[in-house]
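A brief tutorial aside. Many learners find it easier to grasp structure tokens once they have seen a single protein encoded end to end. The record that follows does exactly this for Glucoamylase. Read the sequence first, then the structure, and try to relate runs of similar tokens to stretches of the chain.
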Amino acid sequence: MFKGLVSGLVAVAALQDLVAASPSLHRRNRCTELEEFIKKQNKVSIDGVLANIGPDGAKAKGASPGVVVASPSRSDPDYWYTWSRDAALTYKVLVERLIHGDKSLQSRIDDYVSAQAELQGLTNPSGGPDSGGLGEPKFNVNLTAFTGSWGRPQRDGPALRATALILYANWLVDNGARDQAVDKVWPVIAKDLDYTTRFWNRTGYDLWEEINGSSFFTLSASHRALVEGAALGKTLGKTCTDCAASAPKVLCFMQSFWVGGYIDSNINVNDGRTGKDVNSIISSIHTFDPEADCTDATFQPCSARALANHKAVTDSFRTIYGVNKGIPQGRAVAVGRYAEDVYYNGNPWYLATNAAAEQLYAALYQWKRIGSISITDVSLPFFKDLIPDIKTGKYDKNSKEFKSITKAVKLYSDDFLAVGKKYTPAEGSLSEQFDRNSGAPESAVDLTWSYASFISATERRVGIMSRSWGERGANTVPSVCEPAPSCDVDVTFNVRATTVAGETVFVVGGITELSNWSPANGIPLAASKDTSGGPLWKAKVKIPSETSFEYKYIKKNGNGDVTWESDPNRSGKTGKECNAAETLDDEWR
Ligand SMILES: *[C@@H]1O[C@H](CO)[C@@H](O)[C@H](O)[C@H]1NC(C)=O
Ligand SMILES: *[C@@H]1O[C@H](CO)[C@@H](O)[C@H](O)[C@H]1NC(C)=O
Ligand SMILES: *[C@@H]1O[C@H](CO)[C@@H](O)[C@H](O)[C@H]1NC(C)=O
Ligand SMILES: *[C@@H]1O[C@H](CO)[C@@H](O)[C@H](O)[C@H]1NC(C)=O
């Protein structure tokens, strides 16, 4: 039994709070029903997570030890893979449970460490072990590379895995197993931190694998990992080169996602969206530090910014889903990824709805610990939905406002769980989504992340917190944002190509440096004097290190007519060393 007596008591206290808040019989019944649902659904969720972990999980037979399968669904959609992100977020929850006493999980966590060490060593389409390969988003469940086309790289995986493993390493140190932390866990963490310091300032795909830009979720996960990674390094007598130097730069960059009252989840990309995306709410719960103040700079759950954002994001789903019809402001709604979503017609997700609850449970914890609530112009609209006549100001824990605000926020957060409850089948299985109109489960069945999100939300609800990641010492924003030092490779493109009078040769490809395939902006090659092996055309292009790209040569005549090389696309890859010279020797085809 994991929860034990203490949290059981907390849960009862929480229940009494609720009943006291609203003495009507109707509400009392609703709240008892919710308590019963949570108790049952927690067990289903823990079993659901463990069933999806190899090699013994009931629904993960055939997966390697420690591998988290995203979902047992093998078609429509095929999620029979292991994603670095989903696995890390799942193991973060399992490590927290280990820390709170469930020792039975330790062998699975050790399997996870070994499996991740193996994945870090694979060469895959994002690169090699030492040349960007850690940014590969997903792998086959037998720990081999997935080589099909995909939105890659995704740069959040290493940071999230570092966070899960840093929690574990600290627990090992606290429990007399320092050698294991040093010998087995730190080497994996060190590679992830190294990746994060080198790549945080590059674009990549977001957590929904659709947008190639700068994702708030990736940046905030990176910041947390760098801060706690630097501290763990000290504890273990190791160094994380550049962790401490990079963290404030990342924090500085994170500020530019805050745009007029909410977080724009994807920037450095022209995606035609508002940017209101549950990405930002999930970020806030992932970087929640139970010892932090309501800091705006790190978007803590109780910060004015994160609360304003909570309202902006959840409101964006109020009118677009049939299931939210008629639900008044101040009552919880079903939450999806972002309003423009069209995947499976764009539905609410269980993990998104749970995240909306979890942010508020975390905020409640912070207010109670701090002993006051400050309402500013930025957060006022969030609070007014719950208490229409509330005003800006600082409310001490003994004030009647503090009591009414915390009560209202508690009811509001429970209300998000109640929305999930309404659309959860009787046996408790959690798919990825539920239909925007009928509420019926949709897309992948038994999504591991859906279960993990339920567990973490309900643990925050009863006051089970993760340890501090050191937010207090890492929330000062530098006055000038510095980029990461650039690291480019000089790539010389050589191609032997015969041309007719007036024709010249260009190179184009799938990265900015190669004009993103635009023939009009192709990089011109110059005819070389050395024609002994046929006419040779040359161009030198600076390309970021550790970058995989596709390209082709084209010919243009005086009229601007373009002749493309025949398929397939060519592929190139730069190495790790900054300012190195590399050459591609090709022949026109
Ligand atoms: C691993 O899984 C992939 C995808 O299912 C399969 O193609 C491959 O043959 C497997 N490799 C091994 C070594 O089992
Ligand atoms: C890199 O960092 C600078 C400074 O914060 C920022 O202006 C820029 O948008 C960032 N670019 C990417 C791709 O992260
Ligand atoms: C993503 O966008 C960046 C900047 O626009 C570009 O350099 C990079 O090549 C793109 N990546 C892919 C895989 O298209
Ligand atoms: C080459 O890349 C372009 C741009 O990504 C793509 O549209 C095209 O299908 C690719 N060609 C082949 C043969 O894969």
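Self-check: The pocket of 2-acetamido-2-deoxy-beta-D-glucopyranose (ligand 2) is lined by residues 201-203, 214, 252-253, 268, 481, 483 (CB under 6 Å). If you spotted this yourself, you are ready for the next section.
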